[in-house]
Amino acid sequence: MLKSEDINSSLQKIVLGLSDGSSRSNLLDRFIQHGLPNNKNEEYKFTPIGQSLSKSTDWINDLTKQASQTGQPEPIPGTIPIALLGGVPLNIPTQLPEGLSIYTDNHDWSVNLEDPFALLNGAMRKSTLVIKASKPIDQVIHLDHLPCSVSFAGSIKIVVLKDSSLSIIETLPTNGSDFCNLSLSAEVQESASLNFAVQQSTASTLNVVYNASIRQASDSRTETFTLTTDGGIVRNNFKYLVDGESAEANVFGLYLIGGKTLADNHTVVDHLVPNANSNELFKGIMADQSRGIFNGKIFVRQDAQKTNAFQSNRNILLSDKATVNTKPQLEIWADDVKCSHGCTTGQLDDNAMFYLRSRGIDRKSAQAMLLNAFAVEVVERINHPFIREWASKKVAEKISILG
Amino acid sequence: MAKENPILEEVTSKDYEFGWVSNIEAESAPKGLNEDIVRFISAKKQEPEWLLEWRLKSFRHWQTMEEPRWPNVNYPAINYQDIIYYSAPKKKSTPSSLEEVDPELLKTFEKLGISLTEQKRLTGIAVDAVLDSVSVATTFKEKLGEMGIIFCSFSEAVREHPDLIKKYLGSVVPASDNYFAALNSAVFSDGSFCYIPKGVRCPMELSTYFRINAANTGQFERTLIVADEGSYVSYLEGCTAPMRDENQLHAAVVEIYAMANAEVKYSTVQNWYPGNKEGKGGIYNFVTKRGLCAGNHAKISWTQVETGSAITWKYPSCILKGDHSVGEFYSVAVTNNLQQADTGTKMIHIGKNTRSRIVSKGISAGKSQNSYRGQVHIMRRAENARNFSQCDSLLMGDRCGAHTFPYIDVENPTARVEHEATTSKIGEDQIFYCLQRGIDEESAVALIVNGYAKEVLNQLPMEFAVEAQKLLALTLEGSVG
Fold first, then answer.
1. Residues 6+ apart with CB under 8 A from B380
2. Among B139, B192, B199, B255, who pairs with B172 as Cys (CB 3.0-4.6 Å)?
3. Which domain holds residue A300?
């Protein structure tokens, strides 16, 4: 275990040599105040990402060095593909649909100040990829993070202007080592809509932290889907600020994990104004020695009367070495609201299993069938047809391995 | 209905009704806390050497600990040197029977509706009454003694049954468990002890009544219940305190040890002084309650109605160690004005086929904050464990808050854990329906709240259920309209 001073000084050394070092070290100082989280930190109680990063400074990379590509892009057919290496886009298509603009911003210092990794991301990212829609964009954008030789920080900013719409699929590097620190900030303006899906399927040697913050104006609609299937420690912090009346946030997620993967989903849905809705559904299947963590916070502020906020979390453990830690947290300061949350942990229904077996289906296929049915409930909630189809394919692939 | 109305009206128009002070001569320790005070308390109680050592060890451990800050409550820092840790009603000699007890004392308990003499004759409840920190009278002792049941004050148990105390004290809540348990272990002055022998079904409800009387004192009592194999006991606890401007600390410990096939039912109606409408004064109720189902098929059931205290912070828990053991938790927590409550339970499943059930009903009114915090932990070897939790919140007004923090940790794939929570308010249509039938708004609220909490109130013994219903109405008085 390294001392926090050693980590801090090697971070400072990298940042100070850069031309924009003062802006970076501003964020880095705030990170240092937090430090890497340990198990005393309630938010990172079960997630030893801080301990894992304290083992060496290998994940701290010189930002001036060029990262090398260790795998090929895997574009999803029918999308606008953008390959990213070390968080930086390799190619931005010149022919974009009308109303869509994509560019990099080297002077974006906005971060979520509450999370240490978001601060670290701000200090250590090379640039921010900005995607802006001023009209409804039909074609899906695919952000394809290529396998990369070094640890990196990446940042994406999405702006969906009034009455526009945008849909994005992001895939994390399928291979890599050490640490990948990503951030997403999205602003969804009045009557706009955003569909966003991220697939987190990486090598067990790679730890991932993903910080997302989504702000919604009135009459806007968002739909996000996180699919975590492989990796070392994968931590998601998704925060939704429901800041406009009649806005709707749909928050979906699946974690289908085996091996020693740890998948941790922390979500915050913060209702700031009246008459808005949120639906949240997260499901998890844990095999082998994996650990699934879910912490879903719903805040309904004093003025947010007539809010409808629903949350559900369901888990299946497949092995006696797997663990699930869940905490559906509801905090309400307004009285005229409809809020509920539910949470279950269990196993496959014996009767259903028996039914399938008695019809000549072998154990493995029967289990896969039932697990698929369990997971598909989340996928079916996705409204965007292209993303739904892509997601159901990915889920089926993973379940055939798990079952 | 017509019959019930005047009762509700009567209770809803009242303020805190137990706010008087009795003029009982008391003997106190000097303010402050150090090893000498611990020695002083131990000497006062004429305790054996091993217990003094235990206290001192707890005290030394407490000094190394930090006051926890994680609960969802706010209060100014407590000055632990400004508290009197021992206050006892002065008495000339130990009373050998109820007739010899200071009449002023008996009057105090009569005012509370706990007439010790009358109860002895009329009802079937054995009472151990604790004033400030000292047990003043225990009724029905002889009758229980015939069956081998030991029910007495803690200090008496230390004298008469040192082996039992030595064996079970701290076996469920170790002295080093948490900050307030360590403090209690160092300075506890009295409490109740109860032992039910093998195969005995206790024929009556056992009850402890706590009262803080003296000013500036903290109350630190300790209850220890040991249920031997195949026994059954139902235990009640009630508490009140005078109205005072300052905050008083109540840090109690309750330990339940249930052996194979034993069943213990523990009910609390907590009505410490909640402070006034501006949040001045009131009791800080920081209590550690825990039961251990040590043997197979043991069962522990907690029922609580929490209406008082400026701050309530407690988690009556069950450690389900024995196979097939069962833990239950039923709670109604009401907060009004500026009260704060952070309460819930822990169900730790260790044994196979263990089951637990949690029903928590929170009611927040005024500017109060009400939190449910609970943990269900299914350990690796707890095959076929089963848990069901339900925690509902009812909000009255838009200046209060309801919070839910359920922790669910499952390490065994055969476990089935379910948790559900809802938030609601009293519907205008419900009130309208009552008004139409001539029930005024305040009574209607009391009626609806009682219906909402019925699932929990049903678990209380008869006598307590009536008191609890009245208390609910009283606490919520003035919270609508």
1. A320, B411, B412
2. B255
3. 4-348
